[in-house]
Design brief:
Blueprint (H helix, E strand, L loop, with lengths): L6 E6 L8 E6 L2 E7 L5 E5 L13 E3 L2 E3 L6 E2 L5 E3 L14 E2 L1 E4 L2 E5 L22 E10 L3 H9 L12 H4 L10 E5 L2 E12 L7 E11 L3 E10 L2 H4 L13 E13 L2 E11 L5 H30 L14 H20 L1
Antiparallel strand pairs: 1-11, 2-3, 3-4, 4-9, 5-6, 6-7, 7-8, 10-11, 12-18, 13-14, 14-15, 15-16, 16-17, 17-18
The structure holds FE2/S2 (inorganic) cluster and fe (ii) ion (FE2).
Length: about 350
């Protein structure tokens, strides 16, 4: 079961220059994304109404998309405007289209009732094209329920164990010692914490305080700042959010999206980088390698976890740790939105 009245990240915007069509799957729905020659973005059912060939194998012709199999041609609203061999457009030849938007480097598709699509519901992220940020991006496919990936992203205590030598090591650990402050939001959770007296580099002598702060919003959008400050900053702030006049040593930023493709599969699109500084190519490469190694650790663990969940009755009660608060609250948000949709229909 998925929340349908929601914007889902379908792809990186830069994968879709004018004239290009690609295929994606969201909530078991095949979707063709294409950009017309004039720059309009279209999300259309990736299923030709004739013999169900994927339209993502077709070609963009000006403002239209032509199916490569037998040549039906569609306008941006999914109406068939040309059918080879006949003057008459056949009945049942319309392809469904979806509301689509572009923001912060991503293409977003609204999976629910079109009249409810509201761009104000798109969570704000950073932007790969914004010169304040230097980021590298990637995409991973998971054979696992997207909610297991969301659990993982809402509970960073696992950095100390699963990522002990990668992400945990890079921030010198301490993520599991004290649970973060978690605040419920209308469509997600806000998670923040100070990590005090952490070595600025693994094994280093210089100590820093780290402020980690992020929103996690439906369906699975993480927008996170990890900011390094001189030692003592956390206490000076009384463990509250750092004020604007506190000068950071370094700002890391992360923007991630979990998009379910089906019941037990999802795509994970991510960008990681720095704000307000241009790191050397070597520093960028080092950061990206750590992130990629950590994400491989996550995938191995979560896909293995999925296999055990598949063998376990849903009624089985699980142990609860203080660090489970954010994943628990986030699952409640998803359940509430699902409930609202089911009761409205
Ligand atoms: S399957 Fe598309 S035109 Fe035949
Ligand atoms: Fe992780």
């Amino acid at each position: 079961m998925f929340v349908r009245n929601c914007w889902y990240v379908a792809a990186w915007s830069h994968l879709l220059p004018a004239g290009v069509v690609i295929g994606r799957q969201i909530l078991d729905e095949p979707i063709a994304l294409y950009r017309t020659e004039s720059g309009a973005l279209v999300a259309m059912e990736d299923r030709c109404p004739h013999r169900l060939a994927p339209l993502s194998l077709g070609c963009v012709q000006g403002e239209h998309l032509q199916c490569r199999y037998h040549g039906l041609t569609f306008d941006t609203a999914g109406n068939c405007i040309d059918a080879p061999g006949t003057e008459k457009i056949p009945p049942r030849s319309t392809a469904r289209t979806f509301p689509v938007a572009e923001r912060d480097g991503w293409v977003w598709v609204w999976a629910g009732a079109p009249h409810l699509a509201n761009e104000a519901l798109i969570p704000r992220g950073f932007d790969l094209g914004d010169p304040r940020f230097t980021m590298r991006h990637g995409e991973i496919r998971y054979e696992a329920d997207y909610q297991l990936v969301n659990d993982n992203l809402c509970d960073l205590s696992h950095l100390d164990f699963l990522h002990e030598t990668t992400l945990g090591g890079a921030t010198s650990g301490g993520w599991s010692v004290q649970p973060p402050r978690v605040t419920p939001l209308e469509r997600g959770v806000h998670i923040e914490r100070w990590l005090r007296d952490r070595p600025s580099s693994p094994g280093g002598n210089e100590l820093t305080d780290i402020w980690s702060c992020y929103d996690f919003s439906v369906p699975g959008i993480l927008v996170m700042r990890t900011t390094f400050y001189p030692r003592g900053s956390a206490d000076r702030c009384g463990l509250a959010a750092p004020s604007d006049d506190l000068v950071p040593l370094l700002r890391r930023v992360d923007q991630q999206a979990v998009t379910p493709t089906g019941e037990n599969s999802c795509n994970y699109l991510f960008a990681a980088g720095f704000e307000g500084t241009t790191p050397s190519p070597k520093a960028m490469e080092r950061m990206y390698k750590i992130v990629m190694d950590a994400f491989a650790e996550d995938r191995t663990m979560i896909e293995a976890q999925q296999r055990i969940w598949d063998l376990t009755p849903a009624s089985r009660k699980k142990a609860f740790l203080p660090s489970d608060k954010a994943p628990h609250l986030f699952r409640k948000v998803v359940a509430r939105l699902l409930d609202r949709e089911l009761n409205a229909s």
